[in-house]
Amino acid sequence: MSGATASKRVLKTTVAAAAAGVVVFAPLAPHAEGAGPRSGDPVEIRVGANAGFTKVEFAGAVGSRARVRQDGRAVIIRIGTTAAPDVSRLRVDPPKGVEKVETRSVQGATELVLTLAEGAGVRSGAADGAVWLNLYAPGAAPEGTRPSVVPADGAVPVTAEVKDATTRLTFTWAAPVGAAVFRRGDAVWVVFDAAARMNMPAAAKAGDAAKARWAAGPDFTAIRIPVAEGQGVSARADGAAWTITLGGPTTAASGIDIGRDDSVQTALTARMAGATRTVWLTDPMVGDRFAAVTALAPGKGLRTGRRTVDLALLPTAHGLAVETPTDDLTVKAEGDIVTLSRPKGLRLSPPTVGLEAAAPQTQAPRAAVRPALIISDWADLGAETFGDRHRALQVAAELESGRAAEDPRAPIEARLAYARFLVGQGLGYEAIGVLNALVKQTPAMQGVAEVRGLRGAARASIGRLAEAEADFSAGALAGDPSTRVWQGYIAAQRSDWTTARQAFAAGAGVVDNFTPEWRARFGTAHALAAVETGDLDAARELLAYVFSQPGISAADQLTARLVQAKLFELEQKPAQALALYKAVARAPLDGISTPARLGVVRLEMARGTMKPDQAAAQLEALKWRWRGDGTELAVIRSLGELYLSQGRYREALTTLKAAGRKIVVLPGGDKLQADLDNAFRALFLDGAADGLQPVQALALFFDFRELTPVGADGDEMVRRLARRLIDVDLLDQAAELLKYQADNRLDGVAKAQVSTNLAAVYLMNRQPEEALQALWSSRTTLLPTAMNSERRALEARALMELGRYDHALEILAKDASPAARDVRAEILWKQQQWGAAAAIYEQQLGNRYRDALIPLTADEENRLIRAGVGYSLARDAGGLNRLSNNYAGFADKARSPGAIRIALAGLDGADGSGRPQDFAALSAGADTYAGWIAATKAEFRQKTGGDRPATPARPQAAGAA
């Protein structure tokens, strides 16, 4: 862009911004304290506190229409503006009972989320032009359960009083209930929001009450009372009693405000304090269906009815009554707001119906034939300069805005004409300011299709895609093809290719009505979507359409060339694709050059002209060059895959994990999470980390342990890594790993299994107290028999190590499993019950003496030595002779031949050389505990696949784990 052009752009932007400021902001008196919210703010948040609770009020033109709902511990306040309110006061010093304060953008609004502490309470309502919350600290909230409203005998007594021409019915409940009272046809309906039996014998003998009939539903009671035409009805509450008066003067009802809501789908809202429930009823005389919305006292009703195509609001003495010819009308009571809507919005008159006609303006930009179009005429200056043209439109808009402050019926055409001009000139920020000011001054104007279409186009043009999507999703734009074009463009910017193609196809008939600049942009986005979905023929046609547009900018041409390079790549034309990528990569625009550089890296690596370490260095630079869209997602995935192929596991996991939240939620972001999960599984489940040193593998696992899957796979990962640590006697680290898994990620049988392994590790490390804690904290029912046996043996061994021999034997009871016999023999040996211990050791050897050609294992030698020593110390000559006859021949090939011979010879050996001190040395040398450790390690290794060959180690980069 030349310096003159840039200066002109700055001038245009500055002038428009100044003009927009005149329209958007009106002079306000300074706030008394200079720091609090201003009285003219659309959302005022006021906070006050006393000893009992904290009150938060939402006031202002927008804040007073806030809606409150509760979802578990989250209190959600929906505020009808996309501009987040200032909640710094709440965040810095949250009220007692509030753990966290957040704001989040939703379609057409902002939600303030207050997360309550456990046991905290909240009450909400509306009064004095504000929506209020009372927040209570834990334990300070008033009783939240609703007392029983039905009298003890299960029936509500109904009394009647007839005086002159009036009949007064009194319904005496046990506690306050919500009610709706209204006339429909030739009957008065009384609806309560609780189910009960009506005790009406006395009332049935008095006047109109004699004809009353009642019915109870699951959560309501309805009474229908036929009355003469023209007879009035009124309702009032006195504590828990409702009094309905039939006849006499009718009290003018008030307290319900009906409004229009065009924030998403067109709907009606009724502000009715104390609304409790929507009850759908069927009139037994007519057979049609209608709704009643009950509310608590004091009395509030709708003075005059209202009727639209979709529904009718009946006059009421209290509450709300709705008739509808449709079968999909929704009537929802949330807090003090009752919302009436349909899936595709209500059919209401345009908000501009009541406005005065605007004076004709021959030079002003005219409305397009579609609400979301941008046409060439809007940017046409004619014989004027930009400054003159802009000044004339700005002055007209300012005058109209000033008049609208005095007269709500003032037209909006001058402000729309000004916004059209700004959009046509590409001044999106300024156009948004003008349109927001229009909606702020007259909120109903957000239901005007052109207002939403213009603002959506301006927002999309500056990259505010979420806000633009909210505008284009409004009911006023439903079914409009120009809106579908914009929705396709937004979907393409978010890499949602299938949705983009569907939306572009729906709006294809109006694309030619846009300016050439936007035709090129839409065509490029559509071509990219076609490339990404594999429709190469459509992509070629769309690119030809883009290149045929007159006067498109260099940036738009480069964007189209980038898509063309991707097309060449898919058509197996790597040389052409690479040349085009390199040309586009030289552009001084990061949003265009970054994906082109990624293409260069990809193709040169495929051709072998770029080494992996060079590619990694370039991708690292690209990762920080452009953020927040599908390009960053592609760079991160490519870099992570490259690091994994090089064995640079830490860099790979760090790269994949570092993606921002905006990236993960993009279409295709789930693939990034899948890459991360698959890399972690490959390392710790498929054996890729076997080539690392155990300490390196442990450090890597702990740094990314939140990726451990819940369930069997995660359990297996931890056990395999723990096995490697146990193999090299890193028992403290193995215990820490297993303990984290058991405490934080597992329950039930899975937790019991890992805790069993943890107890074994503690015992190997001579920590019997911790072993018992691991076993006792994971007790559960219905464990497999083998696991129960293993846990009993470990518990007994831990108790033995603590010297609690009798308790250990009690735990083993009659368990005859090999593990239990091992522990039982150890306990008897420690208790110096030599003969009993020796018998078990011999029993464990079984018929091993029959395989004389196979040498004894180390564990078998230890058992044989202990059996011989035990029989000798017990003076059991028969047992010792039997043992000597069976195993004397094994001594020559044994690891400790001398020890075996001494043990089998006994204290009274043939040469008389046996001495007690020799037997003490033999007992110390025959360490069965070491044998148990070796056997436990071998069993653990077998269960976790440790006997398989390790994956060859890949070369690690410097500093990698």
Number of helices: 34
Largest sheet: 5 strands, mixed
- As residue ranges, the low-confidence spans are 1-39, 948-961
Strand order of the largest sheet: 13-9-10-17-16
Strand content: 15-25%
Number of strands: 27
Cα separation of the termini: 48 Å
Mean pLDDT: 82
**Helicity level:** 40-55%
Shape: flat
Task: Classify the secondary structure makeup into a structural class.
Answer: alpha+beta
Note the quaternary state here.
single chain
Q: How large is the radius of gyration?
A: 41 Å
How would you describe this structure in keywords?
961 residues, 5-stranded antiparallel beta sheet, disordered N terminus
What can you tell me about this protein's structure?
The protein is an alpha+beta fold and 961 residues long. It has 34 helices and 27 strands. The strands form six sheets. A five-stranded mixed sheet has the order 13-9-10-17-16, with no helix packed on it. Strands 14-15-12-11-24 form a five-stranded antiparallel sheet, with no helix packed on it. A hairpin with a 2-residue loop joins strand 11 (179-184) and strand 12 (187-192). It is flat, with a radius of gyration of 41 Å.
Brief summary:
With 961 residues, the protein is α+β, with helices and mostly antiparallel strands.
Topology:
Layout: H1 3-24, E1 44-49, E2 54-59, H2 60-63, E3 67-71, E4 74-79, H3 88-92, E5 98-106, E6 109-116, E7 121-127, E8 130-136, E9 155-163, E10 166-172, E11 179-184, E12 187-192, E13 197-199, E14 213-216, E15 221-226, E16 233-238, E17 241-246, E18 257-261, E19 267-271, E20 275-282, E21 289-295, E22 306-307, E23 312-313, E24 316-318, E25 320-323, E26 330-334, E27 337-341, H4 386-406, H5 413-424, H6 428-441, H7 449-461, H8 465-472, H9 481-493, H10 497-506, H11 516-532, H12 536-547, H13 554-570, H14 574-585, H15 590-607, H16 612-625, H17 630-645, H18 649-657, H19 661-664, H20 669-684, H21 694-703, H22 712-727, H23 731-744, H24 748-764, H25 768-776, H26 785-801, H27 805-812, H28 818-830, H29 834-845, H30 858-873, H31 877-887, H32 897-905, H33 916-925, H34 928-943
Parallel strand pairs: 9-13
Antiparallel strand pairs: 1-2, 2-8, 3-4, 4-6, 5-6, 7-8, 9-10, 10-17, 11-12, 11-24, 12-15, 14-15, 16-17, 18-19, 19-27, 20-21, 21-25, 22-23, 23-25, 26-27
Helix pairs in contact: 1-4, 1-6, 4-5, 5-6, 5-7, 6-7, 7-8, 8-9, 9-10, 9-11, 10-11, 11-12, 11-13, 12-13, 13-14, 13-15, 14-15, 15-16, 16-17, 17-18, 17-20, 18-20, 22-23, 22-24, 23-24, 24-25, 24-26, 25-26, 26-27, 26-28, 28-29, 29-30, 30-31, 30-32, 30-33
